[in-house]
User: What shape does this take?
Amino acid sequence: MTSPTDTVPALGRLPGRAGALLAELGDRAELHDLYDEAGSAVYHDITASDTHEVRELVALVRQSTGPVLELAAGSGRLTLPLLATGRHVTALELSPGMLAALDERLASAPVRLRERCTPVRGDMSRFDLGQRFGAIVLGTTSVSLLDAPGRAGLFAAVREHLAPGGRFLISTVDDALPGNGVEGEDGEGPGSDENVYELAGASGRVYRMHEYWPSGATTRKVTVFPGDTDGAQDGPVPVFTSSIAIVPADLLIDETTVAGLSLVARHPLPTGGARHRDVLLEMEVTA
Assistant: This one.
């Protein structure tokens, strides 16, 4: 995890235009991991109203029976819609900051939803909850946070926690969009190494997210700046960053097969970004 007191030379290690902007900010920049305590608040603000993959996940969960386990629950972007299906949801999350945001979100939710949720602090790569679930959900392409050994631990734990006939639902990158690695005339677009998105948070704050992903790279670097960085004159400027692995669907299918899980279906999801499509994999324990 990166310290918010990093010096300018450390900041300069960030690639592309994000690195150049950090250099311009100099010692005013405060660099945080996107998933530390400060970053969790920003992540929650950005994703609170994001509906990407929600409809598809909820529809598949409705076809299952029994309680639901949500892995890497974060601040609850998927948790509340899953609770609305009428199921009990165990929301497992490692980050204390994310769990605090989830607790805050649940506190303002209707009692009928809040009473059906059990937040648990835990590592999705190794967990033992002592029960089985009709559906286990890992959304938001969060499998990208794990390395190969971590994914192996995840799949082994999922297999032990799925009830007979249960479903494991996991979203990931499907493939790169055409033009990957060929920069457009404006330096952005489907084929450029770096794309910048303007995002509006639930709070009304505006952010600029830089996604740096060179052709052939196995990770992409995401860096989030306040939207008013150019106009800021004084004071510290918080910047949030994370390296996200690229875990293609075909690789996940191969790994889960080894772990004793079988693919039931691939469900296409709306485009996940300028450079890739996402897919929702539906799996079951191998008979």
Residues 138 and 170 are 5 Å apart (CA to CA). Residues 1-12, 177-190 have pLDDT under 50 and may be disordered.
